[in-house]
């Protein structure tokens, strides 16, 4: 049974820590629901044990219709929920994707090892791409699959992007190699961590040989001198006046904070939001920001998997 949340229940508790930031979450306009753990079609699988890591859904993606597609890792399925929490059915069977995304045609891209499967939103398999085995792809946090101008893209840990023609099932090499993800106007965006400071480069004509950097933005921890930055990930452009969305992990002595940074196109930070980060299981894709500025977060808890949405960019 799906549990819906109200402003006075668990949702308020989950976002209490955000008050400390310059820009707090607030409660207006939020949507939230929880999918329980279990083995029924309407639930999500959970693997637990005394000496094994807890495993639940690793990733999710939001469709152009605002439906939420979740990788049920334990049951090897992709399931769909509507934004009001209503179950939309099992869409795909016999898959274990570690990254999901939608392309510009509304197809679902599912990355599993070095294979990308392309499904219709109803779950029909349209094509399969078997990428070169020598690509340095590493399953885990920040490993993504995505669409870039009609090409299928994947990235390595050094933020090098490999782009493939979706109509070639067994490409021997990438069609293009670029440094960083595509931003506004075709510019590339990538980051470099130096001690407690992160340089975000916004570059022209960035290929595998290196970019011609035109702008820089600097991101520093917000909370104290004992905090250091962990992962810094560019998550895309959003909003009417396109803003740069970055995900940062800020590591302290007692906790790791998950922060969404919003930057103007010139690299100046305009807002920051702290998200709940007490995950019950390992998750590779914690949130997604849609082009209209709506953020969806997937948070695993002992009770189930909670999805919450809120507008973060006007």
From TrEMBL:
Highest taxon of the lineage: Bacteria
InterPro entries: 6-blade_b-propeller_TolB-like
Gene3D superfamilies per record: TolB, C-terminal domain
Full protein name: 6-bladed beta-propeller
Organism of derivation: Sumerlaea chitinivorans
């Amino acid at each position: 049974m799906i549990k819906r949340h109200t402003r006075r229940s668990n949702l308020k508790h989950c976002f209490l820590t955000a008050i400390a930031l310059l820009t707090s979450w607030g409660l207006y306009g939020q949507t939230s629901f929880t999918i329980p753990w279990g083995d029924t079609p309407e639930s999500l699988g959970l693997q637990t044990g005394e000496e094994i890591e807890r495993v639940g859904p690793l990733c999710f993606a939001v469709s152009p219709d605002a439906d939420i597609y979740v990788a049920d890792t334990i049951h090897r399925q992709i399931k769909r929920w509507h934004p009001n929490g209503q179950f939309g059915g099992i869409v795909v069977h016999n898959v274990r994707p570690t990254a999901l995304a939608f392309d510009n045609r509304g197809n679902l891209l599912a990355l599993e090892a070095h294979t990308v499967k392309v499904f219709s939103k109803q779950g029909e398999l349209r094509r399969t791409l078997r990428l070169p085995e020598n690509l340095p792809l590493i399953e885990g946090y920040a490993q993504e699959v995505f669409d870039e101008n009609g090409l299928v893209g994947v990235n390595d840990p050094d933020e090098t992007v490999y782009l493939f023609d979706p109509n070639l099932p067994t490409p021997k090499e990438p069609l293009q190699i670029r440094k960083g993800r595509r931003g506004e106007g075709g510019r590339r965006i990538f980051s470099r961590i130096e001690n407690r400071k992160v340089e975000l480069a916004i570059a022209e004509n960035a290929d595998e040989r290196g970019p011609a950097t035109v702008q820089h933005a600097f991101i520093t921890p917000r909370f104290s001198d004992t905090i250091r930055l962990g992962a810094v990930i560019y998550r895309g452009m959003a909003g009417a006046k396109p803003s740069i969305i970055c995900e940062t992990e800020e590591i302290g002595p007692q906790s790791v904070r998950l922060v969404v940074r919003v930057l103007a196109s010139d690299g100046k930070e305009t807002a920051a939001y702290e998200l709940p980060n007490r995950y019950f299981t390992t998750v590779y894709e914690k949130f997604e920001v849609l082009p209209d500025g709506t953020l969806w977060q997937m948070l695993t808890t002992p009770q189930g998997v909670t999805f919450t949405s809120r507008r973060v960019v006007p």
